[in-house]
Amino acid sequence: MLILQSPGKNKPIICLSPDYNFFLCSMAKVRYHFNTKSLKIEKVKVTFKQRLLRLLSVIATGMVFAAVVLLFAYNFIESPKERILQREIDQYKLQFAILNDRLDKVQAVVSDLQDRDDNIYRVIFESEPIPSSVRKAGFGGTDRYARLEGFRNSDIIINTTRKLDVLTSQLYVQSKSFDEVFELAKRKEELIASIPAIQPVSNTDLRRIGSYFGYRTDPFYKVTKFHEGIDFTAPVGTEIYATGDGTVTGIEYSRSGYGNCIVINHGFGYETLYAHLSKMSVKKGQKVKRGQVIGFVGNTGKSTSPHLHYEVRKGGRAVDPINFFFNDITPEEYAQMIELSQRPSQTLD
């Protein structure tokens, strides 16, 4: 292509194509072209549509370029603000990890308190331990933590919140338990007086126990049956004592079974039964004290000889009475009783 330029400022520039058939003339803002049909140099006319298309083309190209640049920067280049936010997120994660560790330690302390409560405090005060189902009660509602879902770090937040909820529930149960234990402690003196802690008949030489608690031979049917009490042999008319403070809740006169018998409710889940009596000196609803005479040995009901059938019940279940004679016997005598109770024998009723 041949380019010819006229001398002087802002003069036309003439461009000749290699085949000498086309001329392009231009100035600063005006363009010309050689019309091969008319053999004239004509001014190039640009329509509004062409100008608009050029403008739109430039804008579109710029937008595509800007989008590519922004996409690259967004995915591969962190802004200062993003770096600051990422450091904050990392710090939050660290704090949540520390918080979870502290919650685990608090949970261990609460578990120790629960164990002490069930196996020490409540044992001392003769109270039933709190069921595990109550201590570890769950939370209702499947969408309890729905508001915390949908975030990048939802698992950390939900896990921490769940731990806190469980811990709060267990602390509430433990607080109520300690309130109950505190009330039991205030009633300790009453508890000590109510527990059936002596033998129901005078038995200083331990020779009056004819049959112990456990499986024994029935004297009438000659089969092995579980004997839920202790049989004290004694002459008819021997005094019988209440083994702990309480209220007479049962008086029965019968020619079969336990015969004439008395039931005393000592509170705190304890009851005692005195059977085969010849005579009773208390009435239903009467309050009695430990050591008070409540009746006399007899041979009524299903009985082979004069004796007292004595039972201790805890929470409605028969327990071995010899474990409650701690006010009457020495450790050596208790060991002797345990040894004698292991020998096979026949009951007296």
UniProtKB/TrEMBL annotation:
Domain M23ase beta-sheet core: from-to ranges: 225-321
A molecular-function term among this protein's GO annotations: metalloendopeptidase activity
Pfam families xrefs: Peptidase_M23 (PF01551)
Segments passing through the bilayer: 52-77
InterPro entries tied to this protein: Cell_wall_metabolism_enzyme, Dup_hybrid_motif, M23ase_b-sheet_dom
Protein name: Murein DD-endopeptidase MepM and murein hydrolase activator NlpD
UniProt entry keywords in alphabetical sequence: Hydrolase, Membrane, Transmembrane, Transmembrane helix
